[in-house]
Amino acid sequence: MWTMLWNRMVVRNEMGSFVACKISRMVGLFSPTIAEIMGVREALSWIKDNNWQNVIVESDNLQVVNVLNSMNVENFSMMGGIVSDCRSLINEISCEILFSHVFRSANGVAHALAQATRSFPNAMEWTLSPPEFVTHLLL
């Protein structure tokens, strides 16, 4: 059975202030790890498109963070192909990108975006001003 998965991305500046957030969806049969690495690939593409600098990509999936920090995955695996895509995007982005693990409980904005996906049939992006349902989490 196909499942609908939602990517949630939040961008803050060096002072922790809101820059942008986005939700997008994927349909398919994905393990949680594959879904997370696909979300990171989409985030890297978003970073590249917006020319953001000095980026820290946070994930609550420690395996994904470890793989991206080591960049050692055999290319014949599904995950290896996606990591290869991530490497290519990283090479195209002209800034330092760090990958960091965060506990799910510490990522309130992403959780609020996940809850909100039920209200949005399609992808959404917010820039300059955050959506009302996350403003209290950004203080």
Secondary structure: elements and pairs:
Layout: E1 3-12, E2 18-28, H1 32-50, E3 55-59, H2 62-70, H3 78-92, E4 97-101, H4 108-116, E5 124-127, H5 132-135
Parallel strand pairs: 3-4
Antiparallel strand pairs: 1-2, 2-5
In brief, what are we looking at here?
With 139 residues, this protein is α+β, with helices and mostly antiparallel strands. The chain has one domain: 2-Layer Sandwich (Nucleotidyltransferase, domain 5), CATH 3.30.420.10.
Give an overview in words:
This protein is an alpha+beta fold. It has one domain (3-135): 2-Layer Sandwich (Nucleotidyltransferase, domain 5). Helices cover 40% and strands 25% of the residues. The protein has five helices and five strands; from the N terminus they run E-E-H-E-H-H-E-H-E-H. The protein has helices at 32-50, 62-70, 78-92, 108-116, 132-135, and strands at 3-12, 18-28, 55-59, 97-101, 124-127. The strands form two sheets. It has a three-stranded antiparallel sheet with strand order 1-2-5, sandwiched between helices. The protein has a two-stranded parallel ribbon with strand order 3-4. A hairpin with a 5-residue loop joins strand 1 (3-12) and strand 2 (18-28). Helix 1 (32-50) runs parallel beside helix 3. It is globular, with a radius of gyration of 15 Å. This is RNase H type-1 domain-containing protein. Residues 8-116 form the RNase H type-1 domain. InterPro entries: RNase_H-like (IPR053151), RNase_H-like_dom_plant (IPR044730), RNaseH-like_sf (IPR012337), RNaseH_domain (IPR002156), RNaseH_sf (IPR036397). It comes from Hevea brasiliensis. One of its GO terms (molecular function) is nucleic acid binding.
